[in-house]
Description:
Layout: H1 14-40, H2 43-49, E1 50-56, H3 67-80, E2 81-94, E3 98-109, E4 123-135, E5 138-144, H4 149-179, E6 190-197, E7 204-211, E8 217-224, H5 228-247, H6 252-263, E9 273-281, E10 286-292, E11 298-301, E12 304-307, E13 325-329, E14 335-339, H7 341-344, H8 356-366, H9 372-384, E15 394-401
Parallel strand pairs: 1-5
Antiparallel strand pairs: 2-3, 3-4, 4-5, 6-15, 7-8, 8-9, 9-10, 10-13, 11-12, 11-14, 14-15
Amino acid sequence: xxxxxxxxxTQGGKEEQAAVxxxxxxxxxxxxxxxxxxxxxxxxxxxxxxxxxxxxxxxLPGQDPSREGYIRSTAEVTAAFSDIRITFDYQATxxxxxxxxxxxxRSVLDRGLLGMKPTAGRERVFPIIVINxxxxxxxxxxxxxNTVAPxxxxxxxxxxxxxxxxxxxQVARRIQQASLPKExxxxxxxxxxxxxxxxxxxxGDFYDFHLLSEGRLGLxxxxxxxxxxxxxxxxxxxxxxxxxxxxNYFPPGEILERVxxxxxPYIPANMFVTCFYAILDPRSGHLSxxxxxxxxxxxxxxxxxxxxxxxxxxxxxMPGMSYEEKxxxxxxxxxALFYSDGLVEAHDPKGEMFGxxxxxxxxxxxxxxxxxxxxxxxxxxxxxxxxxxxxDDITLLTLRxxxxxx
Length: 406
């Protein structure tokens, strides 16, 4: 094997040795030029130095080992990294066609690549050993030694973690969707319009309807703290407990009391559930309600917006809680809006929150419109702007009594 140092004389003769040494040096120079072109993103030179039948023996699963695949991968790497530098620490030859190089690359990852996250300006340093076979002045094959194994292990671990997170999100979405009502109750002289939009990282929002005796209707809107599978499981459990309590037709305050007592022993210590529960008598418009720490609903009447206030702690925090019960009557043309914090806590590009005052003003101004929920969503999307990444689940539930009763 010939190294960087001048070769020693052998019995083969000085002329023969000089010729071999000259070819070795040319091949080593070709490899240096090849990697320097990659560093600069000079794809024309990279393509010029690769043999038509080039094969890369060190590709990751799913990558193309051909000449075209190598050029494509080089383009992706140079586009993702900046400040790329290569240092050749050592070069040697084996025979007249193999060049062995030990080099160190330094670079900054500016955008994601193969599951890797940007390094926020932090420099990545990778020692690499590569072997190139040279045929006719072209690079015909390449092998990479396992000095990049730590990088590959980190990459594979990151990919596995992302896959695991995505699987958990899918499970959470299925749990949440299975817990939501499949149909909206149809009541004479009433219009009920739910809207639910989960965030990518699923939260614990829920809404539900309970058909009660004497034609009454139970309505629940709530939010379990946290994200992913834990929030979805707590949300699903809470929905089941609410349905069970509603079967016995307890008043709203007592329903929340019973669910709180049933939920407290089993809910994780760092979690709780906010919930607004109401019972509507469609014939009279009478609405009784209780609140377990949920965002205050709004009632629209005569161009004014009122908060539906009732005191109560979130569910699952502590046992022995009681929940204040209030009641109102929705007359012809009046409406109530129930919602989750994903609406009011959305932020615009400058970091400003949509907020309760903005929501209340919009309800006061547009409360008489039948499509109040759609209008609020339009205002939200206008507020957050294009490219907005939804931070939390958004739930809206509009309950409106017809202006002209049958």
